[in-house]
Amino acid sequence: xxxxxRVTLVGSAGLGVFxxxxxxxxxxxxxxxxxxxxxxxxxxxxxxVVLVRDKDVISADGSLNGEILAKMVDEGLVRLLEEDxxxxxxxxxxxxxxxxxxxxxxxxxLPTPKEIEEHxxxxxxxxxxxxxxxxxxxxxxxxxxxxxxxxALLNVRCSRTHHWSGxxxxxxxxxxxxxxxxxxxxxxxxxxxGLWNLPAVKGKTRLNILVMLTPLFHGKGPHxxxxxxxxxxxxxxxxxxxxxxxSIGLSILQAKRGEHFGKSQPLAxxxxxxxxxxDKFSLGTADLDRIELIKIGWKEGILI
Length: 304
Known about the structure:
- With 304 residues, this protein is of the alpha/beta class.
- The chain has one domain.
- Helices cover 24% and strands 17% of the residues.
- It contains seven helices and eight strands; from the N terminus they run E-H-H-E-H-E-H-E-E-H-E-E-H-H-E.
- The protein is globular and about 50 Å long.
């Protein structure tokens, strides 16, 4: 497989809507302050989220096992879409008519792993999309010709705490689709879901993957990173609903913070953008009691 074009400039990351060729049940999710529905309120269908973990995906030397990681992605997608195999599942999402932008994240301390990017490119190609119509990018999406013509997006990034938004989330991963990303930092980045209404993004996101292999659960300051505040969670969170996936990811980070500090420890910045994405932008589901969470694989230390 030839190398897929990548453009890197300067910037940050942001959010999405989900579409499908043959719709199946979709659903909901949660956040820091989870809302409880009023009694008698009619419940909508639940947002489906898959959490897949494998204890062997990270080797003793800290390297990733690409084969196991690819298997995790495929198993998670098969369960998410209720298909019989990975070929059918990927075929649900993309086809020969598509031009596909894979929005990753290049933050130097926890970038989207190359192994998962390569597997996503290969998987999209198996659906008949030509190599020239696939690109992986983060900070250069506005200048990338594939992204400018994209009919479909695949959203993938690592989970971590974040100085401005509380957590670096799938919702936030689209911030580079705006020419002035810093203008979204007001009020703890509360309105990040508005990014998903940008013309380059709206209605194009087919899948969201929150990478939780070695998440960052604590830090302070705009460029914080200390390896002691990461851990080998060895998981991936997949969903058509970015808000639901982010709510599950946030819950895991909060549980780890409680475990590490011995008590509930609020994040330095409240990640209010996740709840706001549900309540004001109707982007997806943030309430945990309206999320169907499917757990696959390794259960030790699952925290949720």
